[in-house]
């Protein structure tokens, strides 16, 4: 439901992600040097123990952060930021630029660490304790450079011990030529307006790649073709939004392509209908493909539509099962696609009402659809587009 239209979704707003994106917008305000509002003093006072603005460079999960003494408002912002920023670094440059403090990948006794003395001396990232050859600086070397006291000895070895073995291996090998992963922070500071791009990243974790689900495979099985090679799914998902302004047709095609229409065969299996047999031909089980394509009565209905379109010089070829199910991929066939999609809606409505198919009734309803679309187009100032689309039948 949260996917974009061309990914088979309805682009519905994911409320949780949207609220997090609004909270993340406060991070942009904190980092804005030109914004010197007095409210910033509250942020500085609340986050002193975790490094103030340094916290936005840290790679943490919200639940790992030491939030004692932090105002609930800023705590919510930091938790939202963690959902945007957190990732698992696996490349040399990413690991070198990892924060040493407030990092969920560097924990002692299950908790993130913050050595205030080290922090105050400017030791902030993994690269700050590394040598050129990929080994860690010794305690004596750090002590000499940073004037650390002897009491930091145990802290030093605890820090090295909690480093991931995989990180140590990658750092030892070293690969300066390897590109960094996309850094959420570096990308974030380039945004002029942050809410939309942050929301898109957050909601992407809730979106599905429908090409990897079994519904596309089910269509391939029903039609006995490899649809991955024949059609571009992204076009077929959003084509109904190109061709018609009518909401009920858009909703119907969405349900159809996602196989969410109840046929007699399905209703019989779940004990709601007395028989799986088709309403129209009274012979075969009414599957999705049978209801819209293979039923003898339905095939006659499509033949009547083809003949009618031929008489009006609108379209000269017969519809294939692919055309009926998914429409025509080209953006030049708006009227044909509208007729095909509405014909399927008409078939399903007739089945639901338990009536006989009537081509004459279909043409009258199609004329009414044209009038409805004209009213919508008039309100949106798109009368010329409407007339160009419907000209062959007006």
Would you report the number of β strands?
2
The mean pLDDT is 90
Structural class of the secondary structure composition? mainly alpha
Biggest sheet, in brief?
2 strands, antiparallel
Secondary structure layout:
Blueprint: H1 15-31, H2 39-46, H3 72-85, H4 92-96, E1 107-108, E2 111-112, H5 116-120, H6 139-146, H7 153-161, H8 165-173, H9 184-188, H10 195-203, H11 214-223, H12 227-230, H13 233-243, H14 247-257, H15 264-269, H16 288-294, H17 296-311, H18 321-326, H19 334-353, H20 359-379, H21 383-390
Please, could you describe this protein's structure?
The protein is mainly alpha-helical and 394 residues long. The protein has 2 domains: 200 residues, no CATH class; 183 residues, no CATH class. It has 21 helices and 2 strands. The protein has a two-stranded antiparallel sheet. It is elongated.
Condensed summary:
The protein has 394 residues and is mainly alpha-helical. The chain is built from 21 helices and 2 strands.
Question: What are the defining features of this structure?
Answer:
mainly alpha, RVT-Znf, two-stranded antiparallel ribbon, 53% helix, Reverse transcriptase zinc-binding domain-containing protein, 394 residues
